[in-house]
Amino acid sequence: MKFPQLKIGHMTPEFPIMQGGMGVGISLSGLASAVANAGGIGIISGTGISIEELRQHIRKARASIKGEGYIGVNVLFAMNDFAEKMKTAIEEKVDFIISGAGISRDMYNWGKESGTPVISIVSSARLAKMSERLGASAVVVEGNEAGGHLGTERPLFDILPEVVEAVKIPVIAAGGILTGGDIAHAIRVGASGVQMGTRFVASHECDAPLSFKEKYVHATQEDIVMVKTTVGLEGRAIKNNFTEQISDNKKVKIKKCIDCLKNCSYRFCTLDSLVTSMEGDCENGLVFAGARVHEINEILPVQTIIHNIKREFKACV
What is the top-level taxon of the source organism (predicted)? Predict the structure, then answer.
């Protein structure tokens, strides 16, 4: 049995697999173009990079795609540069824009005016219905198993049926999706496709440094911790020196605040901690990861990861 055809706006990828947008610097042009070339949908994270860097990565990804491939940009509503980043992505004619950490009526209007599909990341049927009403082309429903900031305490497969029932637009399942078997399960429940982040971090083409990928490969189930970040949400990360420093609501001195968030507790700098990991120091920065990161034991090419997923999917249907 073949994968079902995912259709979002003009996009009809070979595989109904969207790669998660992971910042800072984890999913840029390298990973996004590799996933697009392998038949999925690639996403560049706009978090923590400049407007010019975002523009360059969009152009680099486009130049790296052989034949037809789809590239989008993830912009976080919680960031102060949200509007500027979204407008830049539209100017560069990306295939779509995906946004989480809040909903803005403006972003749907901008998408409609430019003919750019806008996808919302949601964690409830209520938010999914609101997104559809405002003009979302699809929704990504993210369960508690996801890496990074979490919008819910509920597992994906508790929320997914409710969202599928609530909306008529495509529903993409995310959070804890690692194998072809997981995709088969999501599709049986009614999802049109899946979003996968953690599995693609441990790939040769991922833009993260090798030290970051090795944290994934060597992580055990006991290494996974929940941290309270400065945006007021819990996040899932891999235990290291930094998670110990911020445990029990302890503060870490901020070297230089660039006022990147609309709302921040200033207990430490989330952005700086992510940049530290991106620069290779994965003991003194945040290393976000999904709940099943301990199941990953090798770094593979993106093409091989998707080939393995395809084989696992076929075995389940």
Answer: Bacteria
